[in-house]
Design a protein that fits this description.
The structure holds 2 protein chains of 2 kinds.
Chain A: H1 3-20, E1 24-32, E2 35-43, E3 46-55, H2 69-84, E4 93-103, E5 106-112
Chain B: E1 2-11, E2 14-25, E3 30-34, H1 39-54, E4 63-69, H2 81-92, E5 102-104, E6 107-108, E7 114-115, H3 120-129, E8 134-138, E9 152-156, H4 159-168, H5 198-210, E10 214-217, H6 224-230, H7 240-252, E11 264-265, H8 273-277, E12 278-279, E13 284-285, H9 287-290, E14 295-298, H10 306-311, H11 313-318, E15 320-325, E16 328-333, E17 337-342, H12 361-368, H13 373-377, E18 381-384, H14 402-422, E19 427-428, H15 430-444, H16 447-464, E20 468-469, H17 471-479, H18 484-487
Parallel strand pairs in B: 3-4, 5-8, 8-9, 10-17, 10-18, 11-14, 14-17, 19-20
Antiparallel strand pairs in B: 1-2, 2-4, 6-7, 12-13, 15-16
Helix pairs in contact in B: 1-2, 5-16, 16-17
The chains are: A alpha+beta, B alpha/beta.
């Protein structure tokens, strides 16, 4: 399995998890000049730009730690880029993070609604 | 998740208790410390993180906000590592001990060891004033606080050990190992090595009894420095209370004070004002504060920078020094005895018995004027010394040795204490006081000089073991006066 496949497996897990939790997935792997938005979801009138991190082990740092300052900045820029090209009327949005860590054969989900808080 | 732990910071020599609040909430990893932390404390974030990880504790991947209260006090010092770490830990675990009754101090190493810190005595005193009796501190600092009563100290080496003790409520107070203080101060030097100069030795003995400032003037090589250096062999040991005062100063500097020995400081004449008085941005105590309860010896006082000497004016008369920098001021004690030496003229032989002085009057005057009248007035006693005629090189001083002098001084101190406890004031008899009045009216004394002359006469009386100052005491005291004698031929 190459890295790409691991990533898309993680994203599939994320989609399943989010759907169960009442999100409707609008878009997957949306590319902007500032980088990729893994998932764009919608729930209760709010748009969620979600970065998915999948980790099979904590040995190289935790999933949360892997989100650098630069990545956060790019995520914000990507989200704004997406919103500018969106024709519908304005909706509140959040930039979120979903970490998935494989521990003892189980997937542990760690969802943070707003990474800038 | 919320927790509150207590620690302290040092302001000047005083400890002041602070509270560290910690709040951990879900969010991206983020650690912020607010409440006027200094650079050292911002660095301690990384030490704490590493120390916790190395101790086998999972560092929370959440949003950690820590606040130090009161916010106006500048938080300085690496000893806040441990309370910061404990604040985070107590959010995660459920402590079984009452955190509000415990003060934490300690620095952490990256591997989770608890390192010794400076200023422990002041910190502990701050805790005690605030009513905190239980203190967690590094094991290596334990001997320093052995003199303080009514506290329970928990000494730890290792963060993991401490966390487990707090988690399970199994803290047991550490016991002090009775330190073997070396009471016999084995000096290599002794007053019996000084040949002649008996009047100077007598003067230094009197000065040691009353803590008088003494200036020794004489040609080069006559033994001024030798005598001054031997002063430390006869100084009485410090009382327990004063030991603690000195220990606080040294603990702030990260040094251990040497048991009950009085400090004796002889700075080189190239010393700067900040080093002498204290200062820099960190308000570090200077040499005068280190010499608190001891002796400050200025060899060749005229070679010292004028600004350094002038800055000694207030410390000498006030016995404290108030330093102010960057919106904060601290007061340090500096109750020292000043001993200084100088030559009477540039060539050094002026007024010597059988040596010829090659200086002219103007040169001597200019030389002596380096020492301003204000500084001179702060010397209670002045001894003029001269060359000693040598009869036998191997000769030892027959009248003085350190052991004998220190016995006399100890006796004098006991006598003084006895007088104080029974409320007896040493007084002058009427003849003597009229003699003092006459001497004052010659215009050779300032008002300060007058009261100091009285003090010297008192010290002589104490040394003699008598309760009234008689004419003999006063005459001897007057003999130690008079810089004017140096100048009167010019």
């Amino acid at each position: 399995m190459n890295k790409r496949k691991i990533g898309s497996k993680g994203e599939q897990l994320a989609c399943d998890y989010l759907s169960v939790n009442g999100f409707s997935i609008e878009l997957r792997n949306h590319y902007t000049p500032y980088g990729e938005i893994d998932l764009i979801g919608f729930k209760e009138g709010t748009l969620y730009f979600i970065e998915v991190k999948f980790r099979r082990t904590d040995s190289y740092g935790t999933a949360r730690e892997s989100l650098s300052y630069k990545k956060k900045k790019n995520m914000r820029a990507s989200a704004i880029h997406y919103l500018k090209n969106r024709t519908e009327k304005y909706v509140p949005f959040k930039i979120s993070y979903l970490g998935i860590t494989l521990t003892d054969g189980f997937n542990e989900f760690d969802f943070i609604e707003n990474i800038f808080e | 998740m919320y927790s509150k732990v207590k620690s302290a910071v040092v302001v000047g020599l005083k400890g002041s208790v602070i509270e560290i609040e910690t709040q951990i909430s879900r969010g991206m990893p983020y650690h912020v410390i607010v409440g006027l932390p200094s650079q050292v404390i911002r660095e301690s974030k990384d030490r704490v993180k590493s120390a916790l990880k190395e101790s086998g504790i999972r560092f929370p991947d959440d949003r950690i906000t820590q606040n130090m209260f009161p916010a106006h006090l500048k938080k300085e010092g690496a000893h806040l590592d441990l309370p910061i770490a404990m604040g985070i830990m107590c959010c995660i675990i459920e402590p079984k001990v009452d955190l509000q009754g415990i003060g934490f101090i300690g620095e952490l190493s990256l591997e989770g060891r608890i390192r010794p810190v400076t200023g422990v005595l002041s910190l502990v005193e701050g805790f005690v004033e605030d009513g905190l009796r239980q203190i967690v501190m590094p094991r290596q600092n334990l001997p320093e606080v052995s003199g303080i009563k009514d506290i329970e100290v928990y000494a730890f080496d290792d963060l993991n050990e401490l966390v487990r003790a707090v988690e399970f409520g199994e803290m047991s107070p550490s016991t002090f190992e009775e330190e073997t203080i070396n009471h016999s101060l084995g000096y290599q030097i002794d007053f019996n090595e000084v040949i002649g100069q008996n009047q100077a030795i007598r003067a230094i003995e009197i000065s040691a009894v009353g803590n008088h400032n003494l200036l020794m003037v004489g040609p080069p090589g006559c033994g001024k420095t030798m005598i001054a250096e031997r002063l430390r062999t006869i100084l009485p040991p410090l009382s327990l209370e004063k030991q603690l005062e000195s220990a606080k100063v040294y603990s702030l500097l990260g040094e251990r004070a040497t048991a009950n020995e009085r400090p004796f400081l002889a700075p080189h004449h190239s010393i700067t004002r900040a080093a002498m008085i204290g200062g820099t941005n960190a308000l570090i105590p200077g040499i005068v504060t280190r010499a608190h309860n001891g002796v400050l010896f200025l060899d060749e006082i005229l070679e010292f920078k004028n600004e350094v000497l002038q800055s000694l004016r207030e410390p000498i008369s006030n016995r404290t020094v108030l330093l102010t920098r960057n919106h904060q001021s601290v007061e340090y004690p500096c109750d020292f005895q000043l001993i200084a030496t100088m030559n009477p003229c540039p060539c050094g032989n002026y007024m010597a018995k059988d040596l010829n002085c090659s200086c002219n009057d103007f040169e001597i005057k200019r030389y002596l004027n380096k020492l301003s009248g204000a500084i001179l007035d702060r010397f209670d006693m002045l001894v003029l010394m001269d060359r000693v005629e040598l009869k036998d090189v191997s000769e030892k001083n027959r009248f003085f040795d350190s052991e004998g002098i220190s016995k006399r001084i100890l006796k004098a101190f006991e006598f003084k204490r006895k007088l104080e406890s029974s409320g007896i004031e040493i007084e002058m008899n009427s003849e003597t006081s009229s003699k003092l009045m006459r001497y004052y009216n010659t215009g050779k004394l300032s008002m300060r000089g007058h009261s100091k002359l009285f003090e010297i006469a008192k010290s002589i009386a104490i040394l003699e073991g008598i309760e009234t100052i008689n004419q003999k005491c006063l005459s001897e005291a007057i003999a130690y006066q008079g810089f004017h004698r140096l100048k009167h031929n010019l």
